[in-house]
Amino acid sequence: MQYERAHNAREILDRRLADPPKALDLAREVGVNLTTLQSNFKLAFGTTIFGYVRVQRLKMGRILMSEHGLRVAEAGRHVGFSNPAAFTAAYRKHFGHPPTADQVRGQQRQH
Predict the structure, then answer these.
(1) Out of 3, 40, 70, 90, which could bridge 74 as a Cys pair, Cβ 3.0 to 4.6 Å?
(2) What is the pLDDT of residues 59-75, one digit of tens each?
(3) Average pLDDT across the chain, whole number
């Protein structure tokens, strides 16, 4: 039962990635308390709710740069990072290289 609620929470996050609900609101939406949701989400997916949202946003930013030709700051802003430096730092930490590496590849494909 709790595993199903963690999956429901992830589906809600995926649908509302650009503007995800606060964790407490998400817990209410799936019908559990916050502590239960946080622990079950981590058990089910190996990451926190915040960590999941962050990685999904970074992946979406990567697609926006590599397949749609957006610049780093524009892609970061599009996926919810108000500060381009924060997007760049998070991107580098997650993917192991700066976002400009994927941006360049995307722009080369268009030529």
Answers:
(1) 70
(2) 999 999 999 999 999 99
(3) 90
Query: Sorting pLDDT into bands at 50, 70 and 90, what band is 1?
Result: low
Q: Return the SS3 of 17.
A: coil
Is residue 27 within 8 A of residue 37, CB to CB? The reply is yes
Q: How far is the C-alpha of 94 from the C-alpha of 83, rounded, in Å?
A: 17
Q: Widest CA span of the chain, in angstroms?
A: 51
Residue 65's SS3 state is helix
- 49: tokens are 């709710």
Which two tokens mark 52? 């999941």
Q: List pLDDT tens digits, range 91-106.
A: 999 999 999 988 755 4
Distances (CA, A) of 85 to 37, 53, 90, 95: 31, 18, 9, 15
Whose CA is closest to 9, among 23, 59, 80, 55? Answer: 23
Radius of gyration of the chain (CA): 16
